[in-house]
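Closing statement on the NAP sub-project.
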Amino acid sequence: MAADVLLLGCGRLGSAILEGWLLTGSLAPDRMLIATPSSKPAAEAARACGARVTASPDGIAGMSAVVLAVKPGLWRQALAPWLPALAPDAVVLSVMAGVAGADIAAAVAARPVARLMPTTAVAQGQGVAALWSDGPAAEAAARTLFGALADLVPLADETLFHAATAVSGCAPAFIHALVEALAEAGTAEGLEPDAAERLARGALRSAAAGAATGASLAELIDRVASPGGATRAGLDALRHGGLDLLATATVAAAMRRSRELG
Ligand SMILES: NC(=O)c1ccc[n+]([C@@H]2O[C@H](COP(=O)([O-])OP(=O)(O)OC[C@H]3O[C@@H](n4cnc5c(N)ncnc54)[C@H](OP(=O)(O)O)[C@@H]3O)[C@@H](O)[C@H]2O)c1
């Protein structure tokens, strides 16, 4: 890919992607074209490094790729003015939840399409993203633009995006809710609220550091939960209390809403 990459939308996820590109150097700023109706700090930081930021396609042509990072209900109207500026073989990468690849392909004259469902940790080059593409050109572009930002997990079937969304895109919020509940339980047992939250957040950082080693989840659990110990007792309570059922219901509810939004 030699020409410019259009980032359409610079909200929470679009800004995170932009920050990831700037941090990792995986896309040169002078190849970035950022379309945003209102000023955004990440776009201004990119502009200061040489990126172009604009709300209008006037005078722009020959883009080799576009990243669709607007809300799912807005993509058709947001993309329409830019279509004439897209190269005939430009690749369209969507990070939008619930918009089918075939609908996007139909709107962009059957150009190659890939869908990704990244977490906002792409800003730190630490994200994870489910990836589906309709062919090798789109997959290669997705790997070029997102490979340094996220662990890309290919999906064999596009319909699996709803499950992937629940298990990764939504899941940081689920995990923070569990950490919050642990802190509240610690407060109920007498810890000061600040201390309980610091301790629980520290536990989250420790768990993340363990996960980053690549060890299996079973091994990570075993490292902390020795037989007959306090962690094992807590784990038993978590499992007997219905952790698996709760996780199943949580994923099912998120999938249901993801389908509705699509
Ligand atoms: N946030 C996440 O963690 C996450 C994770 C996975 C996937 N996603 C997907 O990412 C997409 C964006 O989500 P978000 O959370 O980043 O939403 P968001 O913060 O609302 O960002 C959407 C951005 O689109 C911009 N926009 C609206 N109309 C536009 C147009 N015509 N041209 C260019 N930009 C336009 C808005 O600009 P203004 O602010 O100027 O109105 C806004 O900043 C969604 O489709 C969502 O499904 C998000």
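Residues 8-14, 35-38, 69-72, 74, 78, 95-97, 117-118, 120, 169 surround NAP (CB under 6 Å). With this model delivered, the sub-project is considered complete and its resources will be redirected to Aim 3.
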